[in-house]
Task: inverse folding
């Protein structure tokens, strides 16, 4: 299928709009992997993003078939994603890390599953900080180089071919949602994601691994699977690169890595809790529940600890409740 030149995807300096859903990629604290379940860390600003086609002469050749966007991350740096869909009608959004569904652990398929909820609904899902790993919990997204076996992709599939993130957005079928004053026309324009990526340059491209445990739910779909079109309106590949490759491609220096969770907390800055006690949570997939964290992979490979995972005390008065859709910033 050819790539459409009318894809409903708009790239901004620090966010991308995909078929009407705004997606931002936030720099944040890497929470300790110490067995504790932490509240939501803040946004420390968004990662800069660039369109692949704007740097076609400098990006790896394997990217040209996928297109999409790219952003820089340091090894073992954490990130989270926010979704902005403030108006009617809602959208269903599928998300994968290295072609592995971040909610179910199933292999990537841009069509919606007939058997389980393998997508988010925007609104009301305001953000996602990691892979679904336990009831009411996720394991934080942490960047690691491909080829070492640390990523979710490497652990689930046994190889690391793709890295990055894959996103697909689905609109509702005609007549399946309640009537509303603010409607939008459906478009069949699509940005196509090719699955024939060549192996990346060793150590230059990054994937997402599992970090510490965090309180977060994935909300069940209030409209039902049959509400949504099986095929997506738009698909996007998000490449993640290390600071060296980012500079080679753009000529720009990657932003400095954020402060540690310990330093942040010692200065009395806030953590956050979402007011969603009444919201249920989707089931926990066995595939993702069994993914090892970066710390566990270090131990398995016999490496000395590469990061400080000493517990960070978070006082109750430092945890601020926020409503859904609010970006938690210090």
Result:
């Amino acid at each position: 299928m050819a790539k459409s030149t009318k894809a409903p995807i708009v790239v901004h300096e620090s966010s991308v709009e995909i078929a009407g859903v705004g997606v931002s990629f936030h720099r944040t604290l890497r929470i300790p992997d110490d067995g504790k379940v932490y509240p939501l860390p803040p946004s420390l600003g968004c990662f800069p993003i660039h369109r692949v086609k704007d740097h076609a002469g400098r990006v790896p050749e394997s990217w040209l078939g996928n297109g999409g966007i790219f952003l820089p991350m340091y090894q073992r740096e954490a990130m989270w994603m926010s979704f902005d869909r403030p108006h009617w009608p809602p959208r269903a959004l599928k998300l994968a890390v290295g072609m592995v569904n971040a909610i179910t652990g199933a292999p990537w398929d841009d069509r919606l599953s007939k058997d389980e909820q393998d997508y988010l609904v925007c609104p009301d899902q305001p953000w996602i900080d990691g892979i679904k790993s336990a009831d009411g919990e996720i394991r934080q997204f942490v960047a690691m180089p491909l080829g070492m076996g640390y990523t979710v992709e490497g652990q689930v599939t046994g190889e690391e071919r793709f890295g990055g993130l894959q996103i697909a957005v689905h609109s509702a079928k005609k007549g399946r949602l309640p009537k509303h004053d603010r409607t939008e026309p459906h478009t069949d324009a699509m940005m196509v994601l090719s699955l024939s990526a060549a192996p990346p340059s060793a150590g230059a491209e990054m994937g997402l691994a599992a970090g510490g445990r965090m309180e977060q739910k994935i909300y069940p779909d209030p409209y039902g699977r049959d509400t949504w079109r099986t095929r997506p309106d738009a698909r996007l590949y998000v490449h993640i690169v290390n600071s060296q490759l980012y500079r080679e491609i753009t000529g720009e220096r990657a932003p400095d890595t954020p402060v540690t969770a310990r330093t942040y907390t010692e200065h009395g800055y806030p953590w956050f809790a979402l007011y969603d006690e009444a919201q249920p949570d989707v089931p926990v997939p066995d595939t993702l529940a069994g993914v090892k964290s970066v710390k566990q992979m270090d131990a398995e490979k016999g490496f000395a600890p590469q990061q400080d995972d000493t517990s960070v005390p978070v006082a109750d008065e430092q945890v601020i409740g926020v409503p859904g859709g609010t970006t938690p910033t210090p």
